[in-house]
Design brief:
This is poly(A)-specific ribonuclease. Its EC number is 3.1.13.4. Helices cover 29% and strands 25% of the residues. With 366 residues, the protein is α+β, with helices and mostly antiparallel strands. It has one domain: Deoxyribonuclease I, Chain A (4-Layer Sandwich), CATH 3.60.10. Strands 5-6-7-8-15-12 form a 6-stranded mixed sheet. Strands 1-2-4-3 form a 4-stranded mixed sheet, covered by helices on one side. The longest helix has 21 residues. The radius of gyration is 21 Å and the shape is globular. The chain starts with a strand and ends with a helix. The C terminus is likely disordered.
């Protein structure tokens, strides 16, 4: 489940003037959000715009009662604030069902710190990217026996499989498409590095454990980017031209080439090593953001297409329901998440099938 819950400080009458004040109040919305989460009962839950105080005092204790544990990090600005102000900073959270997964380690991805470390003299990297405090949060999970209870059970030695889960909240402003793209490239580079740390958590014979293309990755987030953007092109195709218009002809090439993304002089392209597909396109989900002045798909769930396959997807809210109820936009009395409605995905992890294929291949070879 991927869900931007719209943190309290952004749910204002100035932003959502069509929505009654009582609907915008966090005391009302948080109950509805938790009801949504509990209703769908996902094994892995990815949340954005969760306030620090709400994570520790509301979501974590409530979801622990339902058999989850979770990790959280606020946006980078929290480090510069007093404790009294830090509790209102929003960030990203990942929850997982403890009966099915155990947490191996977690990792915070701070885009402003990566921009500073890789600026290489680029004023654009320092003045445009470093000033945005968006983050990503990753968790390396390991499956337990109960994770296989709804499918064909693998060989006992294959039960404990690694799954790298990541959630991210990319910068929102359409005028900063370059920043969105650079942040996404940083994100993928960090995930590539994390796969190196996952060595020892994959048990398939013959598997190149250090190869990110063979890592089971579930990437969820509010990417604030449409399907025709450079961000989604880069994620879907694993490459993007260094001359892509979303870079705005700004001075990123040298620093990206040196420390953030693989670059080919032959094709003049940046690449990442993962093979991803998006579970959602506009054919399935016309919009994940439904406000008065903007409606579009900007939230996504990506998965490793060589090791995972979607079995089912949650569709959009019925367009007829919006018309019949004369809904101008969200938040709404029945839809508590302000601008981003949630996505839902069932995934069948078939790494065990790869093991069986390899096993029979050996038999045939003999």
């Amino acid at each position: 489940m991927c869900y931007n819950v719209l943190c309290d400080k952004y749910a204002t009458r100035q932003m959502y003037g069509y929505c009654p004040s009582w609907v915008l109040k966090w005391e009302y919305r948080r109950k509805s959000i938790l009801e949504e989460i509990r209703h769908y009962s996902a094994d892995i839950i990815s949340l954005q715009e969760v306030e620090t105080e709400q994570f520790y005092n509301y979501f974590l204790p409530e979801l622990k009662r339902d058999g989850y544990d979770g990790i959280f990090s606020p946006k980078s600005r929290a480090k510069t604030m007093a404790e009294s102000d830090r509790r209102y900073v929003d960030g990203c959270a990942i929850f997982y069902r403890t009966a099915k997964f155990s947490l191996v380690y977690d990792h915070l991805i701070e885009f402003n710190q990566l921009a500073l470390a890789n600026a290489e003299g680029s004023d654009d990297m320092l003045n445009r990217v470093m000033t945005k405090d968006n983050i990503g949060l990753a968790a390396l999970l390991e499956t337990k026996e109960a994770a296989w209870s709804n499918g064909i059970r693998p060989d006992p030695s294959q039960i404990h499989q690694p799954l790298l889960v990541c959630t991210a909240h990319i910068h929102w402003d359409p005028q900063y498409c370059d920043v969105k793209l650079v942040q996404t490239m940083m994100l993928m580079n960090e995930l590539k590095q994390l796969t190196q740390d996952a060595v020892g958590h994959s048990f398939r014979p013959g598997h190149n454990k250090a190869d990110p293309s063979h890592t089971q990755l579930l990437l969820c987030g509010d990417f604030n980017s449409l399907l025709d953007s450079g961000v989604i092109e880069f994620l879907n195709s694993s490459r993007i031209s260094a001359n892509h218009p979303d870079f705005k002809e700004l001075g990123y090439k040298a620093c990206l080439q040196k420390g953030i993304a693989n670059f080919s002089d032959k094709t003049n392209e940046f690449t990442h090593p993962f093979r991803l597909s998006t579970a959602y396109t506009t054919d399935v989900m016309p919009y994940s953001n439904y406000t008065y002045d903007f409606k579009g798909l900007i939230d996504y769930i990506f998965y490793s297409k060589n090791t995972m396959v979607p079995l089912g997807l949650l569709g959009p809210v019925d367009a007829e329901w919006f018309r019949e109820n004369k809904v101008l936009g969200c938040p709404h009395r029945d839809i508590p998440s302000g601008s981003k409605y949630f996505l839902f995905l069932f995934l069948f992890l078939f790494f065990w099938f790869c093991f069986l294929f390899y096993y029979y291949y050996l038999l045939l070879s003999v």
